[in-house]
Amino acid sequence: MPETVPQKPRIAVVGLGSMGFGMATSLRRAGFSVTGCDVSDEAVARFVADGGLGARTPAQAAGGADIVVSVVVNAAQTEAILFGKDGVAETLADDAVFISSATMDPDVARRLAKQLEATGRHYLDAPISGGAQRAAQGELTILASGSPAAFTKARPALDAMAAKLYELGDAAGQGAAFKMINQLLAGVHIAAASEAIAFAAKQGLDIRKVYEVITASAGNSWMFENRMPHVLDGDYAPRSAVDIFVKDLGIIQDMARTAKFPVPVSAAALQMFLMTSASGMGRDDDASVARMYARVTGTQLPGEPK
Q1: What is the predicted pLDDT for the residue at 237?
Q2: Could you name the CATH architecture of 176-297?
Q3: Which of 164, 179, 209, 247 is catalytic?
Q4: Quick check: is 114 catalytic?
């Protein structure tokens, strides 16, 4: 008899924003049958035009799926996708795995995992890092924790989406905690980079030359090098929005308060993102913190009205 070729798992991706769309296309490029779902009909239509399948609700997308990848903003959206009206817990295949990529409080990740695992399915706590371009290339960094069974079920999808997969523990919550440390540093570095570039402009320096000098000097950071070109070009189309860091640095404050651990530097960074959001730039690129500094101090930046 001819040898049976193992069937590839069926995958659903819920959330086709800049990250989720890239992850879904990476999975489809790896040969999986992928069904996409999003609150935006336009995003679903774009994915279908790209060769994927579309669904109107998470429950429909997850119908019989072996793997569901959830790529949404926060814990509340993740919980709604799991257990809300038309949630995936209604239709997931027995023994399926839910891969949660949202940044959230580790305690919430543990609670959601416990609820889903009670139904006989698996939960992999798997926040992501790397940006939309790396998502589209299947080269994300994934910070994952969960049971050995969850990793085994999720492995085909993880291999297609990640250049670096960190296996950080055998229970949900560890991946979320690692991601929050990353977000603490990322938020602080963006705020510091924005402060520095706006201060340089206030001194009358050529900020393009400042960028050249700093990226070759000890004061450089990945965020300075990555985000400050947006300021130089006056381009604040959101790659990662200000309000993402309002949320994430807020979670860090909650975690730190619970642990009675002081985090004064990230608290100061949170205030800068809050002021930027309150100024009407919450949905703009997170480098807009530099614009907030400039507007408060009457400093001219490229592309900004005088």
Answers
A1: 94
A2: Orthogonal Bundle (1.10)
A3: 179
A4: no
